[in-house]
Specification:
The protein is an all-alpha fold. The protein has helices at 7-31, 38-45, 49-52, 59-82, 88-105, 107-114, 120-146, 155-173, 181-191, 207-210.
């Protein structure tokens, strides 16, 4: 007869998985992906190193889970703002503020998520994350341009440039360094055709549209 796990056993296994993921997340927040060795994760989670492999196939698989947990939460916030009420240009402005501000406040986490040297599946996952990020900006740029709120531009190219601007800045500053949030926000807004010193998005409208 095959062994069937009881409810208590299942609950204990899930609790262990959660504790291991939380330990890995904490280490990445503190020191980047390089800090999340299997030994360090095991020590933080309070389990034997060998026990980890009963829950994750490899260190790469664990770090992928960490990356997806962080990036999905961050992208969900931005997508919620992007889909919110208001003019497209204002939502574009709000997304830029939210993304840059959060990256600067959590510089260590943002560096790990966006700029820390990684390879293999983690590098591919990061590229997917950047494309998702760029897609948010591209959609808003197209909407704002169609509404006459910003000048016509190549939305795809501009969004790709914006999505790459913050990782590039974090890479140049290095881990644990805090760039000037205001300067980065202004740069992103200008790239998107917005005046960083005003919230009046009617300036780009024709007289008939703004009436």
């Amino acid at each position: 007869m095959a062994y069937r796990k009881t409810g208590k056993v299942v609950a204990r296994l899930e609790a262990n998985r959660t504790r291991i993921l939380d330990a890995a997340l904490a280490l990445v927040f503190e020191g980047g992906f390089q800090a999340a060795s299997m030994a360090a994760v095991a020590a933080r989670a309070g389990v034997a190193t060998g026990t980890l492999y009963g829950y994750v196939a490899s260190r790469e698989a664990l770090l992928l889970d960490v990356f997806r947990t962080i990036s999905d939460a961050e992208m969900s916030r931005l997508e919620e703002i992007a889909a919110g009420p208001g003019r497209p240009a204002q939502r574009l402005r709000d997304v830029a503020h939210a993304f840059v501000s959060r990256a600067v406040r959590g510089a260590r986490q943002a560096y790990a998520l966006l700029a820390e040297p990684v390879d293999g599946a983690l590098a591919e996952e990061r590229l997917s994350y950047r494309r998702r990020h760029a897609a948010i900006f591209e959609r808003l740029i197209r909407e704002a341009s169609a509404a006459g709120e910003i000048a016509p531009m190549d939305a795809h190219v501009t969004a790709a440039a914006i999505a790459g601007a913050i990782p590039s800045a974090l890479t140049l500053y290095g881990p644990g360094q805090i760039p000037d949030a205001g300067a980065l926000i202004d740069t992103v807004l200008r790239m998107a055709g917005l005046d960083p010193h005003t919230n009046d998005e009617t300036e780009g409208l024709s007289h008939d549209q703004s009436a």
